[in-house]
């Protein structure tokens, strides 16, 4: 065996390996510089995007657009002196977040005199379409119209800053869903009937004012004064979250909205939907009977969000002529 030849071979192999390593390091350096340029381009695009969002927000919530849509009078004017801090807005002290949505959140609050309240904070920046602005205006209109009704939350204040809208409502009870998630047997049979009656009464009052809720589900039903093992009247019921509420008879509605498993099949009608019966010759007595059967049927919430969420509520929606 030629040992000098083997040694020379190892030396050549080492030189080739070192050269390959140098090439790899150079390639890595090129890739690193390319990545830095990509990051810089992304930062430039992000700044342009943020600038466009500022312009979009100013236009979408501007006086000209709101006046053109007939919304200027209904929404609170921007208050440049409004105090917005981490745990305070205006005179209201805020605390924990109770819930959140696509462009809003609900905060636990309290007035200076200690009265509890809930603060819905709506981000103008996160509202992307004119329809979302219309929904906000419709929600405030519904809150004002329903204030004082026994099955609706009281609107206590509404104010606005450049970037946010705030709706302050009474703090009332807890969600039906949260209650039954904690204890599936929390409501006695008579109280279950009382809950259904309260929801039906709340919807009936809304319909009498030409308002449709369009998002009735256990999370949007609030209960208070629940007496364990109580009777029909041992529970108070209020509807909440009117973010999708709308007038039902001004013109046909076409927005398919709400929560899957709970929205009314009427929303799928290509001709639109409203509060009027679609079949002129339909029997009013038949509709009334179907509505009573649907509303006062035994509704089981234990299977909610399980195998077939909202089947009973969907049946109730189908029976009624209003898309609740």
Automatic annotation (TrEMBL):
Protein name, as recorded: Protein serine/threonine kinase
Keywords for the protein's UniProt record, in alphabetical order: Kinase, Transferase
Organism for this UniProt entry: Aureococcus anophagefferens (Harmful bloom alga)
Pfam families, sorted: Pkinase
GO molecular function: kinase activity
Residue span(s) of domain Protein kinase: 92-324
InterPro entries: Kinase-like_dom_sf (IPR011009), Prot_kinase_dom (IPR000719), Ser/Thr_kinase_AS (IPR008271)
């Amino acid at each position: 065996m030629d040992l000098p030849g083997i040694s020379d071979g190892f030396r050549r192999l080492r030189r080739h390996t070192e050269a390959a390593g140098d090439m790899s390091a150079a390639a890595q350096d090129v890739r690193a510089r390319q990545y830095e340029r990509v990051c810089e381009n992304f930062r430039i695009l992000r700044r342009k995007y943020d600038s466009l969002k500022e312009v979009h927000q100013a236009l979408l919530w501007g006086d000209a657009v709101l006046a053109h849509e007939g919304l200027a009078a209904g929404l609170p004017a921007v208050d440049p002196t409004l105090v917005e801090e981490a745990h305070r807005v205006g005179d209201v002290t805020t605390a924990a977040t109770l819930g959140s949505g696509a462009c809003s959140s609900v905060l636990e609050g309290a007035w200076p005199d200690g009265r509890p309240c809930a603060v819905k904070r709506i981000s103008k920046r996160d509202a992307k379409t004119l329809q979302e602005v219309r929904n906000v205006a419709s929600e405030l209109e519904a809150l004002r119209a329903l204030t004082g009704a026994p099955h609706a939350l009281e609107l206590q204040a509404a104010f606005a800053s450049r970037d946010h809208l705030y709706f302050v409502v009474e703090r009332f009870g807890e969600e039906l869903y949260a209650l039954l998630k904690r204890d599936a047997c929390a409501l006695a049979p008579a109280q279950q009937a009382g809950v259904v009656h309260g929801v039906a009464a709340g919807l009936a009052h809304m319909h009498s004012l030409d308002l449709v809720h369009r998002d009735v589900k256990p999370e949007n039903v609030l209960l208070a004064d629940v007496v364990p093992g109580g009777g029909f009247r041992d529970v108070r019921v209020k509807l909440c979250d009117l973010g999708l509420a709308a007038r039902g008879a001004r013109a046909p509605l076409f927005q398919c909205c709400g929560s899957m498993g709970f929205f009314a099949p009427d929303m799928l009608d290509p001709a639109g939907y409203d509060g009027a019966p679609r079949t002129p010759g339909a029997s009013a007595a038949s509709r009334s009977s179907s509505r009573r059967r649907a509303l006062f049927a035994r509704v089981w919430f234990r299977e909610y969000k399980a195998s077939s969420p909202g089947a009973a509520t969907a049946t109730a929606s189908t029976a009624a002529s209003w898309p609740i």
